[in-house]
Request: fold
Amino acid sequence: MAQALGKEVSDLRKIQKELARIESMIQDYVLKKHENEMVRDELQIVTDGNVYKLIGPALIPQKLDEARGNVDKRLEFINKEITRLDKLKADFLKKNEEKQEKIMKMQKDLGPRGK
Amino acid sequence: MELESLNPQQLGIVKEQLDEEVEGLTNSFANLRHAVTKYKASKIALENIDQREILVPLTASLYVPGRIINPNQFMVEIGTGYYVEKTRAQSSEFCTRKMNMLMENMDKISKMINQKKRYLDLVQEIMRKKIQEFQASQR
Reply:
């Protein structure tokens, strides 16, 4: 019986580790989202003037609409990833709660018999 | 939150958590201030550039004399590897925009820090009270 409890606790640890990993990925994407939104806003302000992209050590000229399009596409992707990860996080939070309840119940059952 | 219902040990955990949060926020605040200083310096540098002879760094220890051909044209990094050619006025505006945005964030963070500090004071007050009550009950 105690072995089953041990397994549940180790499962809980795995769930919590995964939750922390997902949370950190979400933070990364949120950061990227802010940076790309700033670039998008700046590109909106540009009317004349040339746009360049840093590819390796070289500044390559870009067409304004192409640059805007690229940033928009990237933002779309980032937002999709954030939505996906948020849903995954909600799933794991639910699993976390269920596992904790299960463990509490098992500890209670084990308690009186353990004495 | 029902702080009164927590025992001194739990309050200690809350205090530690708040301490960590305040430290993190203070770090972010310092980083923002550092960035603002850099944009301010860039803005000042913009105003000082004219058609002068300059020394161009080729490596960390090698400089070559040169002349600025167009003192009104600047390359500004707007983020994620994108650079835009801007005039002196546009570049200066860019710096101002960035500084304002950063200072707005600094304000938000400083408000959050004050809020957390007030909460921290409350937690410590309640902890002190509980410990006193406990010691009184031991006599």
In short: Chain B has one domain: 8-138.
